[in-house]
Design a protein that fits this description.
The chain has 492 residues and is mainly beta. It is built from four helices and 36 strands.
Length: 492
């Protein structure tokens, strides 16, 4: 049964493609900056944290791929590249970007010189008990042989300093995805481990502190919420009086919520399970955002929308909405029977907005009365994949269209917008006219406009197939991009 949404005034016109201008390209002039993994508005500036050379990181990882040709030229030893993560900040009045910080080098556990962090995977503004004012907190992506993930605190705008982390993590926890403020506390959960998957952990517990400087962390949930199928807490968001946590698991994601009151661990309620009863094709919660007093949840299948190891996908992501009374609606996806009745997509759109190649609904943000949603589109990878492993029907379809046509007309991430969650309009469906922008990883609403960060690891040299076979050539369109959207470009 559909839940009626309250009537609201229609907002002003949303942002169309013509309202966006490129604020930065080629990874701030360094195409090794592949992911704008984190973004925040702090002290009237936009801050962006990068992750470096992700395609080369993937090549040396244990994540199984199905590629015949590696898309990017990589050295035999990863750290022959400059893998030091960077933080950049933008003065929106002048349009000038400044490098605010670059990861220091350390001696790793194997005696090799390594960057302390290869990426800044999330950032948020928070004021703890020992903070004299709001600080910018960041969580890091550490090399497997490094010192483990750090939580950094930037207070003076110059050098972020580590704050104590939970002692149980040691050096094995290599990355965090989450830093979420709620009711005067900061919440997080480990994501990846050394020599393992950067998106799963054996230590799936949520922690909180009201004083990161003193490091007084405590566990606030049962490990894995009591279900061994849960591999990580992928997303968290505060909505009204509830803190929500979305997991990833082989049977499909779960969504839990708590009021975070009373003694820890708190009482948690399971709101959705089994991927909102779609199952494994809704493997993980990839994004969460609050819009019009409801929580919007986007799904995804890890490793680019095709999890070869667990034999999940390809399958397009879905969008669901949890309402204030705990009921939920299917907005984009496949109609099905659930314990709460028959659910049909209220938008009329199939998974991935009808785009088979959208693997995640990766990021959402509300801006000036509209909800914006960015995707990850894996169609670009077809030209590098092992076509002999394709399903025959899929091969016939691709042969009919042609890989070159696919590249020029299909490749590139989507950005969509909606004023009510049910009626959606595309802003771009080809990565802002750059097919190498295959994901939208960050969206940040600011007084100076909506900022969009695109993922682009296809640099500096990419594989190109010529008459003599594959060769690596410079890619002038590689490296992350930042786009800025405004409807009032003529105003100060």
């Amino acid at each position: 049964m559909m839940t009626a949404q309250p009537s609201r005034p229609w907002p002003g016109r949303g942002l169309g493609l013509g309202d966006f201008r490129k604020a930065s390209e080629n990874g701030f002039g360094d195409p090794g900056n592949a992911y704008p993994h984190s973004m925040a508005w702090w002290r009237d500036r936009l801050f962006v944290g990068t992750t470096r050379s992700n395609m080369c990181m993937l090549k040396i990882s244990k994540i199984k791929t199905n590629l015949a040709q590696w898309p990017v030229e990589c050295p035999d030893y990863l750290y022959d590249l400059d893998m030091r993560a960077q933080i950049w900040s933008l003065d929106t009045a002048t349009g000038q970007w400044d490098e605010a910080f670059r990861s220091p080098m350390i001696t790793g556990r194997d005696g090799q010189r390594l960057p302390r962090e290869m990426g800044y995977r999330n950032m948020t503004v928070f004021k703890g008990r020992s903070d004299p004012s709001e600080a910018l907190y960041l969580c890091t992506y550490s090399p497997a042989k490094g010192i483990g993930t750090q939580i950094l605190r930037l207070l003076d705008g110059k050098v972020p300093q580590p704050v104590p982390r939970p002692v149980e993590w040691g050096e094995r926890v290599t990355t965090l995805r989450l830093l979420v403020p709620f009711k005067g506390r900061l919440f997080t959960s480990p994501t990846g481990e050394a020599d393992g998957n950067p998106n799963s952990t054996s230590h799936m517990v949520i922690y909180e502190t009201d004083d990161p400087v003193e490091g007084q962390w405590r566990r606030v949930c049962e490990p894995r919420f009591g279900d061994p199928d849960n591999s990580s807490v992928f997303e968290m968001a505060a909505c009204g009086d509830w803190l929500y946590a979305g997991t990833s698991g082989a049977k499909g994601y779960q969504v839990w919520r708590t009021r975070a009151e009373g003694p820890a661990p708190y009482d948690w309620e399971c709101v959705l399970s089994e991927g909102a009863w779609r199952g494994r094709e809704n493997q993980g919660v990839a994004s969460m955002w609050v819009f019009n007093d409801a929580l919007y949840i986007g799904s995804g299948i890890q490793h680019g929308g095709i999890d070869i190891v667990n034999k999940v996908g390809p399958a397009g992501p879905e969008l669901v909405r949890i309402n204030a009374d705990g009921s939920w609606d299917l907005l984009v996806g496949v109609a099905r029977d659930t314990p709460h009745g028959r659910k049909r997509p209220l938008s009329g759109l199939m998974p991935g907005f009808g785009n088979f190649f959208n693997g995640y609904f990766w990021r959402m943000a509300a801006h000036d009365g509209w909800l914006y949603l960015g995707t990850f589109d894996w169609s670009l990878m077809l030209q590098y994949s092992k076509s002999e492993n394709w399903n025959p029907a899929f091969r016939r379809a691709i042969d009919k269209i042609g890989l070159e046509t696919m590249f020029h007309h299909q490749a590139g991430a989507d950005l969509w917008r909606s004023a009510d969650g049910e009626n959606w309009l595309p802003v771009t469906m080809n990565g802002f006219d750059n097919p190498y922008n295959y994901g939208i990883r960050t969206l940040q609403s600011t007084p100076a406009g909506l900022f969009v960060g695109t993922v682009n690891p296809f640099a500096p040299r990419i594989a190109v197939k010529g008459l003599k076979g594959w060769e690596y050539r410079d890619n002038p369109r590689g490296g992350l991009e930042i786009w800025r959207g405004r409807t009032d470009w003529g105003s100060p």
